Request: fold
Amino acid sequence: MTSNSTRERLVEAAIDLLHVHAYPAVGVQAICESAGVRKGSFYHFFGSKEDLAITAVDEAWARYRTLVVEPAIATGDPIPTAEAESPCLPGSADGGRVPHGCMFCRLAASVTEQEPRLQQRLGDLFGEWADMLGGGSEGWATLADLQGRLVIGFALPEGVTS
Amino acid sequence: MTSNSTRERLVEAAIDLLHVHAYPAVGVQAICESAGVRKGSFYHFFGSKEDLAITAVDEAWARYRTLVVEPAIATGDPIPTAEAESPCLPGSADGGRVPHGCMFCRLAASVTEQEPRLQQRLGDLFGEWADMLGGGSEGWATLADLQGRLVIGFALPEGVTS
Reply:
């Protein structure tokens, strides 16, 4: 395995794990085990869990933006129901479908001021997303609608029935 | 200190901590330290962290519903901007104001199927809240708007500027 692929495996493992677990629940040890990488190698590639998480957010957002957000906006409905209920990143765990998790939403709700760079990266991402959704108060409102559906979906994995 | 007040202190400590940290980041040890209760006493009152969290959700929701949700609905604007940006529970840490945290939202985004009873309690709570907001798709949409603003606020604690 080249160094490059080791790094990529760590990033993919982080994306997969952060998609379904809150930030404090995802440890470096678990990421390394999932990636099949010795823990001693981790710090050769990343200075900290926060550094890896920022790289994972960058990578996941690049995919999600291209594969989900932009096509949804192109249809004229920026909040496709299926995506809102079942957001996913192609290439991630569970055959590309992670039914009840949104990495950005979970991260935003589980990081604190103890991870200021990761928190800011998420804030910048939300700003970019809101701009894609029309910008200004309209963009933020549409994004809030989407993020809120995701949060509710976390607590109601079977979906809303009424 | 009576047993009753020991139990209450554990519940208050859990509310305070779960308001600002994700569920996996709040351990029984930290709750006991915050409450000034010996860890050995914890399991006299609660079978598990999940049991305490459910009790904390019940108590916090009873207050939040009465002190924030119902008055907001009575004004005709169920999503008062100040509350959405700065939700709080009177009586909790930081003089009653916890600027950037919503316990229910954080919990929903940080519990998993490993805490099925807590997850269901949150789902029931969201259902009750949506009913209060008009029920049906309208109630869920209004609740999603509110929860989404909270999530975005977590990543942008200084607020949205554009």
Summary: Chain B touches chain A at residues 20-25, 105-106, 108-113, 119, 122-123, 125-127, 130, 135-136, 140-141, 143-152, 154-157, 160, 162 (CB under 8 Å).
